[in-house]
Structure formats: structure tokens, C-alpha cells
Amino acid sequence: MTKASDFPVRPRTASATKRIATSQLKPGMFLVGVYQSWWKSPFFRHNRLLKTQKDVDVLLKSDIKEVMIDPSRGLDVHEETEKPSSTLPSSAQTPIGDVLQDEEVCSASSVPSPQDVSIQIKHDAVTAIERVFEGVKTGAVIDHPTLRHTMQALVKQVFSQEQVMAELYVLENLHAFDKTLYDHVVDVAILSIMVGLQLGVNERDLEVLALGGLLHDVGHVRIPRNVLKRKHELGEHERVIFERHVGRGLAILEQCPSISSEVQRVVAEHHERQDGSGYPFQRAHREISPLSDIVGFIDQLDACVSPWGPPPGLPMALAVRQLYMYAKEGQLRVEPVAALIRCLGVYPLGSLVRLSTGEQAVVVKTNPLERLKPTVKLISDQNGRVYDSPIIENLAASNTSTPQRMIEDILNPANLHIDVQQYVSHDPRHESHV
Known about the structure:
This protein has helices spanning 53-60, 99-104, 114-137, 144-160, 162-172, 181-199, 203-215, 225-229, 236-243, 245-254, 261-269, 290-305, 316-329, 334-344, 413-416, 421-425; strands at 18-21, 30-34, 48-49, 66-69, 352-355, 360-365, 375-380, 386-394, 407-411, 432-433. Strand 7 and strand 8 (386-394) form a beta hairpin. The longest helix is centred in the N-terminal third of the chain and has 24 residues, at 114-137. The model is unreliable at 1-15, 83-109 and 426-430 (pLDDT under 50). By secondary structure, the protein is an alpha+beta fold. 39% of the residues are buried. Helix 7 packs across helix 11. It has three domains: 4-109, no CATH class; 115-344, Hypothetical protein af1432 (Orthogonal Bundle); 352-433, no CATH class. A six-stranded mixed beta sheet has the order 9-5-6-7-8-10. The protein has a four-stranded antiparallel beta sheet with strand order 1-4-2-3, with no helix packed on it. It contains 16 helices and ten strands.
């Protein structure tokens, strides 16, 4: 089973560790982590003894500037490299083949949480994609090794921590931040992987979904900036220019022969729709690859819920409901949209809802077993009076002492001037329960 320690993220400082320049490394030191993005690291796993000069040279030739070592498990900066191995701390003599076992017995305080790992991996993926896209802007060919490394890390993390990654996406979109193109394509890739896993696609198709998600809007780098800034308020002529980002993206991919035809098809078709209403080819139904359809509707979702799309963004629950209606009307396929609902919940984290009692509440925990009955925080009564302290209730738990509460409707917090983020971020240990 994949563990958080499988992912080389920036380590937390512990009393026994020391931050040093990479140039100070020498054989016999015990490497704990690096201080640059994981995709620059030549090692997939850290927590390893640097046994030979070759191990050190690999790091010296990388872009890593600083690392963290553990002198209690290997040499310190001022100790001699030639120090006899018999005098090294016993843990420093651990064979590299035993590194995994060593990682498993690390103290809990030194192991990042799944949330921390997910945040770091997503951050590093955005940084990597920014470098790839900025290179394309200057005329460089797509950096396929970096792209694949990023894709593989995202697939692994979604596979091992799907729920955490889903919650991270929802929570980030509760913040009113200015999403960049790089944030957008990474989010589309992550959700596309989730939907693919729910639909049981094979490993190769998962990679196509991930790469297609990362590259679907690469053509934006060849569209005039003034058009991109106004992409949701365009005149007819500007609309034609904007829609050329699909063709320009394909032209960029053609310069990189290692990009598969399946990924190119996703980029070509991510704005096509099942009813033929999309662009640039007005394809419909079986003319559209199912993988293109997944990336396309996830792209549409992200445009609905985030500042990447037209302001103000829709609440996640309302956006998912809207996409489901589009699917019922034939614009999208129903199966992928239903799979997304299984990932995010019928009422995603942070949804503002009205209950059968007339009370207003915020969803603070989804319920995979009973999707219509999440855990909520009651924030106001049926007359709109705000409770002094929010009350937590699990709608799936039977309670004969109070009326059975059920969700009746999804509300838009922007219309009611309610900041749902404050209720989601509060520590539930300090709230009242019913």
C-alpha cells in the first residue's frame, strides 16, 4: 500500500536533523529530505544513507541547493569522510535495501500528514507545469520528462489519497483566490484522474486523462493576453480568436513526438459536447473520445466554481447539479458526472443548505455511505436568527429526541452574504453537538 512516506516532500524540522548546502554532502551522511520541489530530486525516496561518492554526485549534478541530513544516523558536516564504517552510528550502516523498513519506523511527528503531502504535491505540480508552459512561451518544446514525472506523482497521490485530494480541491475553491492557468490545468488533471478511477479505466487511460488534463489548455500561451483576460465577455471576433487555443495547443503538441495521439485527441476535443454544440469540430456522441469527454466536463466544472471562470463562481454543489442537468439534457455523458458526484459528494464540503426544519447549515463532512445525509453545522434557525455557537449534527444518525432533519435545498452563500469558509475551518471539538 502506498504511504505518505513514499513521497519526497519538504521535511518537517526535527531536533536531530540539520539543513546544509548540497555542496557540503559527502559519503556517510544520512539524507532526510530536500528543500526544492520533489520533481527536481534525483531520488524517488529520501531517508537514505549516501554510501558512495556516486550517490553524492547524483545530488551535486541536480538543481537541489539545500538538503536535510540526520547526523545521529550518519556523518556530520565536520566529521571526516574516511571515518571507519565501524565507528558510524549503527543506523547509518543500514543497507539501502532496508530504507523502506527504516521509513516505516520513523516517529509519527516526523512523517507528514496525508493533507500536508497532498498540498505539497499539488503545489509542486503547479510549479512544474508553470515551468513547462513558460518554456513553451519562449519557443521551447514541451519538457516531456517533467510532464510525465508530474503526471505520475498526481496519479499516485490520487490513487492513495483520493478523499483527501477531493477535499483539498473543494476547500481551495472556497477561498476567493486568483486561480492561474497552471492551477487550473492541475485541478482538471486531478479531478479527471478521480473520475477515471471511479469508472475503472485502465492504467494507460489514467495517464492519458492526467496528461490530457495538464495539457488541455496549453494553447492559451499563444492567445493574446487581452483576449484571455476577457474570455468570458468576448465579442464575436474575440471569441473566434479565443477558440483558436485548441488548434494552437495541437500545434504545440505536434512539436513533441513523445506526446501520444490519445493525449492529442483529448486536447483537440475538450470543448466538444455530446449534442454537437461544442467546438472546434462540432463532433457529437461516439465521435468524441470518452477520455476527452471526461476532461472536457471537468474543465467546464472548474470554470463554474473558481475565479478561473466567470465571476462570481458557483458553489460546488450548484455547479455539480448544473452539470448533471446538462448530462440529462444530452450535452454531457451521465456516467462521468455521476462518478464525479461519488468523488465530491452530492453535497460537497462547504455547501450551504436549507434543512427540512427551515434551519440553514453548512456541510462539514460528506458521507460516502449515505450521500444525502452528510454531517452539517447548523448556523441559523428557521427565522434566520444566527446561533450563538454552530451546532454539529450527523444527518445520518437517528435521533428520536429531535425532529429528523433532511436537506431540502442548496443555497448560494454569495446571495445571502454568508462566509461558509469560517464554518468549515473551525475546529469541531469546540462546537456544540445534537
